[in-house]
């Protein structure tokens, strides 16, 4: 069965929203994700900007500044809730794993 969009987040979605706890632009997000994950995850510009557009439409982030082509965004309360729900879901998975292998 296909995953309903935004019911669960992909790794890229999760890390983009984490980065937007503070205002930043696309290039900053790409750099922060790579740094935060120690290179395990990288996000290309096509994926990033498509997701940013989706997040704006869903009300998870808002655009805060535009300087030429550079746009900055920040997480909304709705975005914080989605991120927290995903964190709780992932945490439950880790707890299930730990129970199964103890």
Written overview of the protein:
It is a single chain. The protein has 102 residues and is of the alpha+beta class. The protein has a single domain, classed as Winged helix-like DNA-binding domain superfamily/Winged helix DNA-binding domain (Arc Repressor Mutant, subunit A), CATH 1.10.10.10. Helix content is 57%, strand content 15%. A 3-stranded antiparallel β-sheet has the order 1-3-2. A hairpin with a 2-residue loop joins strand 2 and strand 3. Helix 1 packs across helix 2. The longest helix has 24 residues. 20% of the residues are buried.
Q: Which secondary structure elements does this structure contain, and how are they paired or packed?
A:
Layout: H1 11-19, E1 24-25, H2 26-36, H3 45-58, E2 61-67, E3 70-75, H4 77-100
Antiparallel strand pairs: 1-3, 2-3
Helix pairs in contact: 1-2
């Amino acid at each position: 069965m296909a995953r309903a969009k935004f019911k669960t987040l992909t790794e890229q979605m999760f890390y983009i929203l984490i980065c937007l706890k503070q205002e930043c632009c696309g290039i900053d997000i790409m750099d922060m994700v790579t740094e935060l994950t120690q290179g395990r995850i990288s996000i290309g510009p096509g994926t990033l900007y498509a997701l940013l557009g989706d997040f704006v439409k869903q009300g998870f982030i808002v655009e805060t500044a535009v300087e030429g082509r550079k746009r900055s965004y920040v997480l909304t309360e709705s975005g914080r809730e989605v991120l927290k729900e995903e964190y709780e879901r992932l945490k439950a998975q880790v707890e299930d794993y730990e129970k199964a292998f103890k």
